[in-house]
């Protein structure tokens, strides 16, 4: 991976101290001391992040702010962060510049940990805006985009279960990527050179499921003019993926159980069984244990399938992957086509971060695909994605904007971890007592239902 480069525009004496810290933190720092030099550098090289350090030096007057704004707008692929003295914020023009054109800001003296986190977030958003997020190799991602901890854990589980031939049961909400997980298991397994046959059990008419899965012999029923292999037999030596297995009728569940027990199938109308060597991966968006409890799914079949359980997390549990996925889908939707879409606007990024994604990854792909077709702008907006814009900051001062942002970040963190205070505090980088104090300050409870209703 290439080194992370940052442009540091130092307009005050604190710039040297900041530059030293950035270098110790792993950034390759390119420093300049005035706006003309910054514009020349930005014209020659690409920087994902730029840092303005404006502190104890001369105050930026209206002309300086206008020149700074022109510099920021001319470097649209770059995300800007500001380190500024309290006096700078007294200027309405400078406050408007920060609110309208900068990713974030911090008041001097620097809080190094917060600054590091701020710059990393700015870098990720710059990569999203440019749709050039460096993908991991297929060997690392197994075809599933995402760097969240839950996705790293999922890929680790997939590699483990792929080594065996025991049945796998994949659980997860609709649209979360269960099919991709099944494909990854097959590709990582010793059976990867043999067929992977995918069956959507909910998409086949009940009257046809038996013959589709197990095949039939000539004369078995009207229209059966020749022998035909079923989908299970077609997967001989490889893997069959039974998606939405919970939709199978009870009588077919008995036949599937017999196949799992005896490693053989019997075609419709046949008098003899046929041995097959097939690994079964099943998936369901419903809880099969609950289906067993109400008599909709056979208990013995459930235990046969649930040898190696895997759960694919919903998108709301890995919100940090939304920028990666959005950029990935944008590349897919624009590949090989003339287009003028360059990325996502600031409002679109904020709207995606605020959305709860009930349709998971499938919903995100559909929204990006629709936006690419329908937008008339170079940068996809929130309305192009069919999302409500996140609460804006127009008409409020910088302190109010920062308070609103702090409240919003706390609410989202609590929602992502199911209102677990310890996990939320760890994610936010504060102590539990500090988080309690902040929750009390903003009037935030830890009831998930209440959090989900917050604006």
What's the topology here?
Elements (H helix, E strand, L loop, with lengths): L3 E7 L4 H10 L2 E6 L2 H10 L4 E6 L7 H13 L4 E6 L7 H10 L2 E4 L4 H19 L7 H4 L7 H14 L5 E4 L6 H11 L7 E5 L5 H9 E2 L11 E2 L1 H4 L4 E5 L6 H13 L1 E2 L8 E2 L3 E6 L3 H6 L5 H7 L2 E4 L10 H13 L8 E2 L1 H9 L5 H15 L4 E2 L17 H19 L4 H8 L3 H11 L5 H5 L3
Parallel strand pairs: 1-2, 1-3, 3-4, 4-5, 6-13, 6-14, 7-10, 10-13, 15-16
Antiparallel strand pairs: 8-9, 11-12
Helix pairs in contact: 2-3, 3-4, 5-14, 7-8, 14-16, 17-18, 18-19
The first-level CATH class of the domain at 149-311 is given as: Alpha Beta
Total count of helical runs of at least 4 residues = 20
The largest sheet is: 5 strands, parallel
N- to C-terminal separation?
A: 39 Å
């Amino acid at each position: 991976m290439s080194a992370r480069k940052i442009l540091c525009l130092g307009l005050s004496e604190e710039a040297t101290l900041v530059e030293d810290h950035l270098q110790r933190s792993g950034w390759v720092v390119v420093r300049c001391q005035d706006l003309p030099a910054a514009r020349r550098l930005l014209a020659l090289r690409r920087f994902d992040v730029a840092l303005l350090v404006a502190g104890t030096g001369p105050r930026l007057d209206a002309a300086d702010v206008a020149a700074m704004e022109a510099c920021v707008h001319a470097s649209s692929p770059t995300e800007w962060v500001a380190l500024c003295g309290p006096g700078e914020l007294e200027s309405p023009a400078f406050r408007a510049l920060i609110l309208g054109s900068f990713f974030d800001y911090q008041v001097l003296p620097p809080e190094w940990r917060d600054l590091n986190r701020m710059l990393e977030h700015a870098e990720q958003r710059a990569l999203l805006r440019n749709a050039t997020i460096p993908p991991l190799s297929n060997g690392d991602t197994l075809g599933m985009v995402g760097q969240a901890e839950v996705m790293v854990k999922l890929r680790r589980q997939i590699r483990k279960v792929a080594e065996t031939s025991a049945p796998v049961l994949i659980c997860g909400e609709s649209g979360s990527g269960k099919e991709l997980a099944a494909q990854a298991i097959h590709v990582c397994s010793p059976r990867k050179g043999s067929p992977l046959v995918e069956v959507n059990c909910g998409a086949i008419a009940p009257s046809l499921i038996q013959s589709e899965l197990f095949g039939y012999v000539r004369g078995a029923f009207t229209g059966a003019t020749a022998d035909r292999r079923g989908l299970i037999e077609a997967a001989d030596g490889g893997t069959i993926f039974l998606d939405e297995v919970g939709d199978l009728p009870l009588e077919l569940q008995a036949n599937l159980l017999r196949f799992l027990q005896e490693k053989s199938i019997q075609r419709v109308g046949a008098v003899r069984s046929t041995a097959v060597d097939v690994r079964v991966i099943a998936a369901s968006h419903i809880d099969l244990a609950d289906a067993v409890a109400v008599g909709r799914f056979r208990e013995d079949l459930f235990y046969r399938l649930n040898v190696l359980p895997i759960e694919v997390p919903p998108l709301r549990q890995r919100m940090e992957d939304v920028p990666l996925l959005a950029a990935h889908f944008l590349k897919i939707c624009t590949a090989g086509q003339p287009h003028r879409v360059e990325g996502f606007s600031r409002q679109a990024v904020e709207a995606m971060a605020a959305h709860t994604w009930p349709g998971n990854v499938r919903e995100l792909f559909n929204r990006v695909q629709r936006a690419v077709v329908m937008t008339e702008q170079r940068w996809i907006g929130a309305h192009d994605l069919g999302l409500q814009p996140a609460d804006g900051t127009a008409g409020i001062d910088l302190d109010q904007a920062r308070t609103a942002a702090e409240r919003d970040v706390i609410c989202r963190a609590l929602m992502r971890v199911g209102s677990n205070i310890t996990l939320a505090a760890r994610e936010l980088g504060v102590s539990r007592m500090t988080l309690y104090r902040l929750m009390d300050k903003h009037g935030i409870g830890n009831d998930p239902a209440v959090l989900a209703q917050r604006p």
